[in-house]
Amino acid sequence: MKITAAEITISAVKPEQYPAGELPEFALAGRSNVGKSSFINKMVNRKSLARTSSKPGKTQTLNFYLINESFYFVDVPGYGFAKVSKQERQAWGKMMETYFTTRGQLRAVVLIVDLRHPPTKDDCMMYNFLKHYDIPTIVIATKADKVPKGKWQKHQKIVRETLNMVAEDELILFSAETGQGKDEAWSALQRMM
Ligand code: GDP
What we know:
By secondary structure, the chain is of the alpha/beta class. The chain has helices spanning 36-43, 86-102, 121-132, 152-163, 182-192, and strands at residues 6-12, 25-30, 62-67, 71-75, 106-114, 137-142, 170-173. The chain has one domain (6-192): Rossmann fold (3-Layer(aba) Sandwich), CATH 3.40.50. Strands 1-3-4-2-5-6-7 form a seven-stranded mixed beta sheet, with helices on both faces. Bound molecules: guanosine-5'-diphosphate. Residues 30, 32-38, 52-53, 78, 142-143, 145-146, 175-177 line the site of guanosine-5'-diphosphate.
């Protein structure tokens, strides 16, 4: 995919603030610090379009990035931060639920997990939530550069099994360091536009 333009359009908290129009959207979900911002930046060849490592306690927003004026990446706040209060967690859940269940333009959710470790309880909850609402999901197992090539298959299997992934959902190994998996990820997204 040749990227000609990538810009943030809006940081939204409420549906009234979501961008108007019918362009397809892909939401990006993942545990805080998993490498979500790095994934977005690598995919669109920008060093810092998405801010890396957003701290808990900051305003939690859905960030809409317009790509090539033809679709959106929607960065959703990371989950699984131990220090987040119950109130913040509930606000997060409500915002996510509203977005995931009402947004017709949402084509798929890209769920980012860490290839090095088995998916966490929060990762499983997120995946189950998406499946509960029948949302197509692409799982990206990132930081592949940190796992020896000989172990990729084994780790990939653990990710699939721990999340209990449905057969239709794709699992793609990725590295924001090396760019591995980038073409595959774009192909998967383009099939869903
Ligand atoms: P976010 O909180 O999910 O947006 O995570 P970030 O994108 O900020 O990444 C968290 C940390 O992981 C940063 O120090 C990144 O440099 C590092 N990181 C992200 N992706 C990769 C990757 O594919 N390989 C390696 N080696 N490090 C990565």
